[in-house]
Amino acid sequence: MVLVQKKSEHSSSSSSSIDGRIIAVKDNICTTDLPTTCASEMLRDYVSPYEATVVQNLKRAGAIIMGKTNMDEFGMGSHSIYSAFGAVVGPSPPEDPQPRSAGGSSGGSAVAVAMGMCDAALGTDTGGSVRLPASYCGVVGFKPSYGMLSRLGVVAYANSLDTVGILGKDHDPRDPTSLSPETRKRLRENLSKSSYNKASLRIGIPTEYNVTELTPAVREAWETTAQTLLSLGHRITPISLPHTPHSLSSYYVLAPAEASSNLAKYDGVRYGHRSAADRSSPDNILFAPTRHDGFGAEVRRRILMGAYALSSEAKENYFIQAQRVRALVQSDFDAAFVQPNWLKMRHKDKRAPPRDGGQGRVDVILAPCALSAAPLLSDVRAQRSPLDAYVNDVLTVPASLAGVPAVSVPVWVEGGRNPEGRPIGMQVMTQFGDEGVLWEAAKILEGLGTMKACEGR
After folding, report:
1. What pLDDT is attached to residue 186?
2. Residue 443: active-site member
3. Which of 8, 78, 80, 129 is the catalytic position?
4. Domain ranges, residue 219
5. Fewer CB within 10 Å, N side or C side of the chain?
6. d(Cα 140, Cα 80) in Å, to the nearest integer?
7. CATH number assigned to the domain comprising residue 342
8. Taking 80 as the threshold, does the pLDDT of residue 455 lie above it?
9. pLDDT by residue (tens digit) across 265-310?
10. Among 169-183, 184-198, 265-279, 335-349, whose mean pLDDT is lowest?
11. What would the mean pLDDT of 149-171 be, rounded to a whole number?
């Protein structure tokens, strides 16, 4: 990690809430004074000619960019072990010195925050890449509604899923996925007409998230959190998100498909790593050796998966079907929340239905963020198949497919089935654009303190 000690010359003269704060930046977010490598040999020495909008905004607000953080190569991974610079090691207490997973792909950012190296860090979340590391490292990880924050200057993995893990209010006209000022205004106006009771939130518990792979410690933390919230006067309601079981399959068709297209430009001709074998190949192969040497095994695997999903023989059966599943997942969330999805409402419809006047039943959804506490790195490396790692995203992918905001908040449960006392990430999700309620729920979770484990069922 390269440190930048001086304050940016672009900082605003007026003080802001982050003036002088130390911020770390994930290494797939472009900076002009530090390399942007995406943890890949393909871009090992690459320095961007322009800065990402999110970095520019931080500097204007007076933040100090301390350096870039390690990650899974091009954001593809769940444990931050697929990096040309070596694996990220998660934080561990002195009594538990064994190296643990930091989660991925924003593991370096999560560790930097957890270890007190910075006040905050930027990450990117495509299918859970901010929330999963936050859960493993015991910090807060926030994914805003899709399009709320500009991703101009973020090296793309899957354009329709990528989000930067901080909240933003300003539109960037150079980023086609950033919500327009008119849409943001409509969201603010309609959401301001809605009401909810902070003392008695309607909290949904999705039955489909109670998968068999949940470890006893995580299931106990989920139950204890729900019971504690109930005792504080909040309403707990079982809900169904019926297409959740198909979310993971849909994600691992759509994300690699978009990645295969986005990474096609890394051929060693226009920019990036160039293999010497390209110049001396007797078969006159132009860039195959470059792409083999420049990309790690996991990135190559996902490029191949995506290329096949987009091929003429497979597109209808895989890519198109995955898009249909994505639409069904979005509909599940819309049906669950009391708040309507204003992004889908007609522009001419000025009437705001009452918050409890729709078919939905809950203000927020509460579920675990990960299947377990941070696993040992040795166990992660011993996994026999990449599918063992892909399943880690099963609880975070649905919110990404739906584009709804989500935040992972660490909870601590005393006694019970987590004798090591490791933090467990609880995930709160709300309707698209409803970050106000999301943060109220997150504050409530943070205020629970250490809870006593409820008796197992």
Report:
1. 83
2. no
3. 129
4. 22-250+317-452
5. C
6. 18
7. 3.90.1300.10
8. no
9. 998 877 777 777 655 556 656 778 888 889 999 999 999 999 999 9
10. 169-183
11. 81
Q: How far is the C-alpha of 165 from the C-alpha of 143, rounded, in Å? A: 5
- CA distances to 54, 136, 235, 287, 406 from 113, rounded to whole Å, are 18, 12, 33, 39, 19
Q: Which residues contact 172 (CB under 8 A, 6 or more apart)?
A: 53, 150, 152, 178
pLDDT tier at 68 (50, 70, 90 boundaries)? very high
Residue 70 lies in a domain: yes
Query: Helix, strand, coil: what percent of the chain each, to 5?
Result: 35, 15, 50
Q: Which residue is it, tokens 């769940």?
A: 78
Pairing of strands 424-429, 406-414: antiparallel
Query: Is 129 labeled as catalytic in the residue annotation?
Result: yes
Q: Where are the beta strands (DSSP E) in 217-355?
A: 235-239
pLDDT (0 to 100) of residue 282: 60
Sequence-distant (6+) residues with CB within 8 A of 407 are: 131, 140, 141, 142, 143, 427, 428, 438, 439, 442
Which residues on neighbouring strands pair with residue 142, listed in sequence order? 407
**Tokens found for residue 308:** 């096949």
**297: Cα within 13 Å, side-chain hemisphere:** 4
Inside any domain, residue 291: no
Rounded to 5°, the CA angle 203-336-78 comes to 80
The single residue of 48, 78, 83, 105 carrying the catalytic annotation is 105
Query: Distance (Å, rounded) from C-alpha 35 to C-alpha 162?
Result: 21
At 393, the amino acid letter reads: D
Number of domains in the chain: 1
**Quick one: pLDDT band at residue 354, thresholds 50, 70, 90?**
very low
**Tokens read off for 452:** 């006593």
DSSP state, 351? -
Could you tell me if 448 and 228 are in contact, meaning their C-beta atoms sit under 8 angstroms apart? yes
pLDDT of residue 357: 42
The answer to whether residues 362 and 202 touch, using CB atoms and an 8 Å cutoff, is yes
User: Is residue 424 a part of any domain in this protein?
Assistant: yes
- Give 105's contacts (C-beta < 8 A, 6+ positions apart): 71, 72, 75, 76, 77, 78, 80, 124, 126, 129, 133
Nearest to 165 by CA among 114, 135, 128, 211: 128
In a domain, 395, yes or no: yes
**Would you call 105 a catalytic residue per the annotation?**
yes
Q: What is the pLDDT of residues 196-234, one digit of tens each?
A: 888 899 999 999 999 999 999 999 999 999 999 999 999
